[in-house]
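pasting for ref
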Amino acid sequence: MEKLATNFKTGESVLLHPKFQKTVLKNQKPLRQIVARGIQDGLPMPCFSAAANFLNGLATENSSANLLQAQRDFFGAHTYQKVDDPTAKFYHTDWE
């Protein structure tokens, strides 16, 4: 906890600190195994599964989260960016 507290004083994300990155990468597989086993045994695993899913999301280049931009655009014209457009322009589609 002291190492975490020191890191938080710098304002740097824990996941950007090399020492913590090494620990996270080393323990990703065991985390997934714990979550899978807990779920198989019918145990609620909300925090562990959220942590595993968060890390999975960080490691996934094109995840289903891209769909959220389209949904936001549909319901509120928030625009979206196309993953196949290198110009990084924003688009709006008349979805109806």
